[in-house]
Each structure stands twice: as structure tokens, then as C-alpha cells.
Amino acid sequence: MTYYAPPKIDRNAPCWCGSGRKYKSCHQHFDEKIHEFAMQGHIVPDRSIIKNERQIQGIRESAKINIAVLDEVADKIRAGMTTQQIDDIVYNTTVKMGGIPADLHYEGYPKSVCTSINDQVCHGIPSETTVLKDGDIINVDCSTILNGFFSDSSRMFCIGDVPEENRKLVEVVKECVEIGIKNVIPWHFLGDMGHAVHQHALDHGYSVVKEIGGHGCGLEFHEDPFVSYVSKPGTEMLMVPGMCFTIEPMVNMGTDEIFQDEENGWSIYTADGKPSAQWEVQVLVTEDGREVITY
Ligand code: MF3
Ligand code: CO
Question: Which residues contact 262 (CB under 8 A, 6 or more apart)?
Fold first, then answer.
């Protein structure tokens, strides 16, 4: 990624962020700081991914639906249910609240939600023939559009009596996300956060998927930056106030190797057939830390 210094703005002109405030009392100091990091060779965000207060409010409203939908799934999910029934809950609850499921028709995706069971890493497609059974672990990944604003989160559910080993995986991945959240600090690097997440997974003998990660989210479904959870401290994009992205590590009990279902072109599985788990939250970088937008 190359940094092009944006044209200078008059101190009293309106700020580029669309806040309506004067540049000098809005993003002037911010731009100067970004410029310094860029000159040191760091990856810095483009203005297009910095959200203003109006946009943040829109994303928060979208997130209210996103969270409510997963709450509804949490309430209803049980052994014996098909993943299509989960899809129906997601579609109906989202639409009833005035939103649109972001997954539906996204790059040809056929359903409203992703339901990934056991060795499915992500992008499991709901189906009438997939029935949840006692002992399964499942990730339900739900994304929402409201008034053009996007929100995204996923949760794990343990169905009935889950073997201790698998339950532990689900717990540790949740801890990974919590560690990730704490490491979202303005003017630190995404690599600092990603490394902390990776380390916690490694400490438990797990591996983290490299090829698929988090993403900027809010004005579009998938925006810059790509968010890796196998990154090194001091690398990757600088985190600055107004950036909004997901923390969604996919943690495998065995190998980090994965493969894609050739028949549907979507679903990802672990190469060794061992389980994989994932939680996803969306965070906003603030002046003094972070705001958790979805959980
Ligand atoms: N919700 C997924 C994410 O966390 C993306 C799913 S795309 C779909 O980024 F098309 F598979 F739904
Ligand atoms: Co996501």
C-alpha cells in the first residue's frame, strides 16, 4: 500500500470527514500524526475508512439489529433443529426490524447467515438437511445492513453435551477475541492486536487460520484493512480513531491448513477434520481506546 499525502486543507475550511467542523478543530492534528507514521514507513489508513459521528451512529443502529438477531438465535438454537431454521430466524428477525441480511446474495451467497459446524471453519451454508445434534459446536455468523450501514458479528453455540476438549476450544477463542479487544488502542498497530490474539491461541496448543481474517466494516460489508491474527507487533495498519473493523479469529484444534468445498465454492473445512471455532465482534477505535459495536 502506498501513501499519497493528501492535498493541504486551509485551517478554517470544513474538515474532509464531513463533520461540518473547521479542519483545525477536527482532523488537522490527526492528519499531521498520520503523516509522521507514514514517513516512518508504516501502513496508514486512507481517509475513506475513517468514520464521522453521523456514520458511527448509523453503524450503531445497524448493530442493534445484528445483536438482536443473534440473541434470537441464542434463544432458539437446540439439537434437532436444521441450519435452515437458523437461516429463517435470521432472515425474519432482520427484516422485521427493518434491516437486510448482508450475506444474502453477497457475491452470489445463497442464504442469510453462515452456520459452520465442528470442522467447518467458516461459510457453512444453511440447509434443510443439516440437523444440529447433541455434541456439535456451531458458529452462527450474521451480518446486517440498515440504511446502508453494515454490522457483523458471530457467536459459537455448544449444542447439548459437548466434549470437554471442544468446549475448551470454544472458550479459548472467546478469550482470544477479548484479548484482541483490549489491544485495540489508538496509534498502535493492527499487528500488535493480531499478535496478542495469536499468542493466546498458541499458548493453548491451537493454530490460527492465516488466509481468512477480519476486515474493515461499516460503510461497506468488507472494507480495508484486512485484519490478520497471525501478525507481528509493530506491523500492519496503524489503528486510529474512527476506524471500524472486525476481530474474528478462526482457531483450529489441529492444523491451520484448510480447504474449500469445491461443490458449493464457499464452505471452508479444516484439512485434518479437527474442530475449528470462531467468535466475531466489530470494534470502533476511539480517542482513548475502543468501543465494542457488536458482540
Ligand atoms: N460474515 C462473514 C464475515 O465475517 C462474511 C460472510 S460472506 C458470505 O466477514 F457471503 F458468506 F455470507
Ligand atoms: Co466479518
Answer: none
For 155-174, write each residue's pLDDT tens digit.
Answer: 999 999 999 999 999 999 99
Q: Whose CA is nearest to atom 8 of ligand 1?
A: 103
The finding on whether 136 has its CB within 6 A of some atom of ligand 1 is: no
Whether 190 shows a pLDDT value over 80: the answer reads: yes
Q: From the CA of 221, give the closest atom in ligand 1.
A: 9
290 lines ligand 1 (CB under 6 A): no
Q: What are phi and psi of 144, to 5 degrees?
A: -130, 145
What's the pTM value of the predicted model, to 2 decimals?
Answer: 0.97
- How far apart, in whole angstroms, are the C-alpha atoms of residue 99 and residue 164? 37
What are the tens digits of pLDDT across the range 7-66? Answer: 889 999 999 999 999 999 999 999 999 999 999 999 999 999 999 999 999 999 999 999
Cβ of residue 282 lying under 6 Å from some atom of ligand 1 = no
Q: Which ligand is nearest to the CA of 245?
A: 2
Measure the CA angle with vertex 184, ends 254 and 238; round to 5°: 100
- Between helix 164-182 and helix 190-203 the angle, nearest 10°, is 160
Fold type of domain 23-36+43-294:
Creatine Amidinohydrolase (3.90.230)
Mutational test site, ligand 1, from 90, 116, 123, max ligand atoms within 8 Å of CB: 123
Main-chain dihedrals φ then ψ at residue 226, nearest 5 degrees: -75, 135
